[in-house]
Batch of 2 targets.
Target 1
Amino acid sequence: MPQVKIIAKNFMDMVASLPAIKLDMLYRNQFICEAILRSMPPLAKKYVLQMLYIDVPVTAKSLEEWVLADGSSKHKVAIDRLIQLRILEVIDRKKETSYKLNPTFQTNLRKHLIYGGILPREPMPSNVTVRLPTSEELDAYAHEQWECFLLQLISSGQAEKPTNFSSSMMRIFQRGLLCQREKEAPRLTESGFQFLLMDTNAQLWYIIREYISNSEEQGVDQADLIAFLLELSFHTTGEAYNMNTLTDDQRAMIKDLSDLGLVKLQQGRKDSWFIPTKLATNLSVSLTDSSSRKQGFVVVETNFRMYAYSSSKLHCEILRLFSRVEYQLPNLIVGAITKESLYNAFENGIAAEQIITFLQQNAHPRVAEKLPSVPENVTDQIRLWETDLNRVEMTPAHFYDDFPSRDVFEAASDLARVHCGLLWEDAKKMRMVVKAEIHMLMREQLRGQNK
Amino acid sequence: MASAPSKLYADDVSLVVVLVDTNPFFWSASSLSFSQFLSHVLAFLNAILTLNQLNQVVVIATGYNSCNYIFDSSSDLNQSFENGRMPVMCSSLLQKLEEFLIKDEQLSKEVPEGRIKSSLLSGSLSMALCYIQRVFRSGALHPHPRILCLQGSPDGPEQYVAIMNAIFSAQRSMVPIDSCYMGAQNSAFLQQASYITGGVHHKPQHLDGLFQYLMTIFATDLHSRSFLHLPKPVGVDFRASCFCHKNTIDMGYICSVCLSIFCKHHKKCSTCGSVFGQAQSEAASTSDKKRKTPET
């Protein structure tokens, strides 16, 4: 597998890329219908609702009439998405395209609207007296577990308590994020750096995606996993659910998920229970949502100094990516954003925008109230330093000299000019530089003249 | 205004405050029965909640004498689970609605005969706005709020001042008021409310298909509204009610100081107390009896 390009890609893209039969099977599950509806762009959601109780195909033309002129691009995106997810079935008849909702999806969604959201499974009855973790404890648990996993991911040695993932599994996660040269400590790749700066939800999706594609290789059905994950996101945070309600595959998976901090396992006297954390219930929320936003910790001052109120090793590692860490106190990391540290980051393939969004997203609550949360002179300078590196533009080109005569030279330079490929010429010494794209053309022309 | 853009969630997260008209005088005469109406509305509420995990729905019942919150998705859904087959949302909503209707009925026995059978729209609008203000002030992030009035009863002219004040405060805090009028005559109050606040007003032609109207028009989140064709106001009824007798009037007298409206000439403004001059010679005013008088 070639290096994975990390974009904050939605899980739904993965769903959309499933084969048609599997998608149709997924739609038999009511929760998946709901989760998929939620993941769509606003206009697409709107169209689904509008067409939910229309049983005859709707022509593409009348659909277009719903939108104003300046919304046509959004309209196209919405329709494309719907077709991609096979929610809209395209019927071509007599040069007229019309759309119809996927019948399974339609019936399930109708059922959902009429009977309301039913929970996937019953939570633990209240008469069982087991102390459940409070929501703060649960959040802390999820956070700790996730951080531990990340730390192990980027530098296996540093984690205090290793997770139960086998090293082969870990290697799969690391694929694309780390690169290891012989007998050297593994280094983060460009996408590895980008991964660290993404928000938790995006990171989670990335890991889950790797996890799912890996399970596929091991013979577990991808659609089943996706269905279970989506179902999990509809459970109530902090309620305990009985493990007996799960299938064997799901039970195996939930152990892995607890390592990621998605669920907390609790052993009762007779049964064992799993308690979904916020990480799990946020799974089906689209990535742009800030609902999962954590409490920030970074304060950046106008003099480029940075104070991070955090005791986490992971945070320190992340900050080290683009700043010079000066002191590390028990609950405070003091650093400075310098030109050198930033150049280091740029070299590693981190973009200025990524650093800025990271600083903004993780701004300490005190400064987050202010606008802008990161001083403007700092953000501007970070961008300027990045553009400094981009002052030189590379164009592949060929250099020509030793022309037999001035006529040949002039004919050649004219030809290059006509094709907009002349980059530089020195008429006195009869030399020129021409873009590589038209090299073949030039060669033919020159050969023809030589004869 | 009250809401800084940075405090908003992503584009289409919405808080919909639905004002449901429960006026028995209207529903007893309507072609659509109240229970049918409720099933349309419940499905609509479900749809809104389905659209986005962060969407929030609040239902306020507008009764004949009173109004009250009957459902709030942010608190009611987390309550303990009902064992029956009915989903939590419906059962808790219906239960509260029943309690509300009984209370409302008890109050109505004390009301004298002869007044227009309107429901207490001004009260429920104010409650909705209070709720939205609370959302604005609490927490760092909040959804885009909007109000949807599902109204059937005729306008009560005596509520004119209160409703207009509610409309203007909604306009100030940039909360659109959508209105769906199910009664026979169109409601001037609701038309004005939607027109002033930038909401959508619609009077469905066929009440049987209410759900489709709700989905097509009123389920549209504020973000998508800028791309979609929605009903445009045609001929908004801008008539006002006078402050003295609460009659709806075409022409009247306006206090030049506080803009209060009167159907007859008064010596003194009842709202701000400014003393008006003599109405110009009685002979002159007989020719055009009712006119706006900018006299001090």
Target 2
Amino acid sequence: MTSAHSKLYSDDVSLVVVVVDTNPFFWAGAALPFADFLSHLIHFVNSLLLLSNLNHVVIIAAGVSSCAYVFDSGNAYAGGTADVAETLGKASRKMEEFIKQDARETASNGTVADGGAASLFSGALSLALCYIQRIFRSGTRHPQPRILCLQGSPDGPEQYVAVMNSIFSAQRSMVPIDTCIVGTQDSAFLQQASYITGGVYMKPQELSGLFQYLAAVFATDLHSRTFLRLPKTLGVDFRASCFCHKKTIDMGYVCSVCLSIFCKYHKKCSTCGSEFSRVSMPDLNSLPDQRQ
Amino acid sequence: MPQVMVVARNFMDMVAALPAAKLDMLYDSAFICEAVLRSFPPLAKKYVIQMLYVSSPMPAAAMQEWVLDEYASKHKVAIDRLLQLRVFVEVRDRRKEVSYKMNNKFQANMQKYLVSGGCLPREPLPISVTGRLPTLVELENYALDQWECFLLQLINSSQVEKGTTFSSSMMKTFQRGLLSSRDGEAAKLSENGFQFLLMETNAQLWYIMREYISSAEERGVDPTDLISFLLELSFHTQGAAYSLSTLTEVQRVAIMDLMELGLVKLQQGRKDSWFIPTKLATNLSSSLSDSAASKEGIVVVETNFRLYAYSASKLHCEILRLFSRVEYQLPNLIVGAITKESLYGAFDNGITAEQIISFLQQNAHPRVIDKIPIVPENVTDQIRLWENDRNRVEMVLSHVYEDFPSKDMFEQCCDHARDNGYLLWEDAKKMRLIVNAEFHQEMREFLRRQR
């Protein structure tokens, strides 16, 4: 690890990958209009770029059935300082295009039945980590990376395994995942993500002042975070999703070989194929304190 | 040995030393605000961002709450810096409670930045006017050549083929801190000068810029104009052409000098003439420690104390000669050896072992940079040991006490000095002791009381 650290820039130069939820099902009914949200976001990106000329910001949009890079300050500044206003304009156009494209894909997939669709955060997190790895491997020195998730829509339990895998790989490469919830409900996945990777999890009370939250908490570089009182998470929802029906469960069966989680008893593990012999124990589904 | 360090880092100290009115004037320009903000320590930057949309004064006590108690000193440093540069202004209300408010101009400029993003100080000339411009690589080579040429001229005027056109008086100002000349002798590099040569390019550049700015008044130029122009220059796009006609008179004179240093390249077209900022110029406002990142190293040190530098530059050769014995030079390679004699010569000139080691590490060749340690351990250890060899004798100002009337008295004195940790030497037979000079007063008091 030492060799990687000697390649870091001093102090506070950061690479921030912002994952933005563009789920139309969520934004249609959100308290904060998407356009306002976007302007808060652009302010925030500008303020990050203002802090140091070596700061690097990437925005990844996470839609319902796809995700994509929308903005990369590294491209925008190929020759020193370029016209930021124009590139950001381009970014919001790209964002619109992405949303349209995403809507088409969703329609053709036909998987989304009702309004409660989740955004593809597992994909977006993987993209973010890939990007960070690319930066790690290129060039002589690189900035301190971190990921910021702006999530509004509810978690998609079917992404549980993928999201957890991204979280652990973020932890391994020491990339904190910050979370700012712009929706109404807490996200168990991202609570765990921030908890495991040492990031900040926050759910702002007053969404109209989103920029102030972003600037006060999430603009802080990793170096300064050690000195500051930052918001602490009150509790973390550690519940897992089962592998068979993707339901969030309190209690379940765990494969003793590969640690896969199931909500119902199986004769054979669907992940690793080990066969279980039934031992006499009470049926989990009949326990009184079980919540789904 | 007294430690003399050339202070080159704190250009912003110079800005901070300007009178308040001038400083406020500087903040009219968004670029200067941006450069000032970027020069702050991380915590101070964070405060600025956090306070950007707060228009009423913020109580100091409340700001203290932001930081964990054990890091209060960091908070103080950040706030002091912000006050020094007048980005935060102290406000006292009726109850004498201190609050901080952000400088209005600064705040407005930064808010504008957040809304519209950064913009360029002036429009570059279109390609139709300028024709083919030098590529970035060509430009960088040009800048480094120019800079090297200047440095060579600075340290010894004999080796230079094509001199710069700096007037000798200007050159003297630059050399003031770096060369020492006794009457009738040729000027020699002073301790500062040696340390200057081992610094990275950007730090050197700032040192020269500081000298340049502080001597501005002698030339009848307002330093404020120069500072703002330099900071503005650093926000130009590297490699683009800007028309000279947009500059003021002062700036036009300054840009001629900057060309000599390699900060800009001047080109003449059919009608217009223009300047092209190089990397040196655009790095001016960036933080000093990070700017050397892209420079490729040249030095390989082997465990047998041999040193290979892949460079054709005379300057590198001169620098290596400071602390090693250069054995031979091939067209692209300088081969030397680090010897006890060569290092003693370096230590005599006031270079420290740490400086040499950090120079070797910072300029390591890409092939060895991934190794841990970059410079072989036995070499670094030996360099440090050789330095320690010279510091075996430590000078301490002290006093001798002798002719004690009785053995008793002598012993009491000894004990008293020893208990306080100031006894340096004692000779019980001849009843003499030596005590640190700091303790002399106390010792006299003690002796008087004994009588």
